[in-house]
UniProtKB/TrEMBL annotation:
InterPro entries: MGlyc_endo_b_GlcNAc-like_dom (IPR002901). Pfam families: Glucosaminidase. Residues 11-136 form the Mannosyl-glycoprotein endo-beta-N-acetylglucosamidase-like domain. GO terms for molecular function: amidase activity. This is Mannosyl-glycoprotein endo-beta-N-acetylglucosamidase-like domain-containing protein.
């Protein structure tokens, strides 16, 4: 179970994403994808407040832990920012993998969600499409 109410979680997504110019609705769809609709079941557990699998590589690797839901969402948004632009985050850095992306050829190279294919998740050839499909289902009410 997530560590805050669903309403609060959505509010954090909108607050953090709007601040950085990231689409909050699609970032939320990414969280749904990464957490199995907040049922988890993979390596990440709800108490990590890690909604995007930051640092998780499979095989029992838990990935990053964040002190609360808002900081976990901020880390996700900052990680998306690292892929989508070379502009620095507006708030202090909490994404433990931001510098890794910044120092790679992936920094600022994903202008669209489908540009994340093979970058955010490897091989992840349809990663962006999966997120956009979830987003479309949200919009349609499915």
């Amino acid at each position: 179970m997530i560590t805050v109410s669903p309403k609060q979680l959505v509010e954090y997504f909108y607050e953090e994403a709007f601040l950085e110019g990231i689409r909050p609705d699609v970032a939320f769809a990414q969280a749904l994808h990464e957490t199995g609709n907040f049922r988890y079941g993979g390596d990440v557990v709800p108490l990590q407040n890690n909604y995007c699998g930051l640092g998780t590589t499979g095989g029992g690797v838990k990935g990053a832990w964040f002190p609360n839901a808002q900081i976990g969402i901020r880390a996700q948004i900052q990680h998306l920012l690292a892929y989508s632009t070379t502009r620095a985050p507006k708030l202090p850095l909490v994404d433990p993998r931001y510098e890794l992306v910044k120092n790679s050829d992936k920094f600022g190279q994903s202008a669209t969600w489908t540009d994340l294919n093979g970058k955010w998740a490897v091989p992840g050839k349809t990663y962006g499409q999966k997120i956009l499909t979830i987003h479309a289902k949200i919009l349609s009410g499915d």
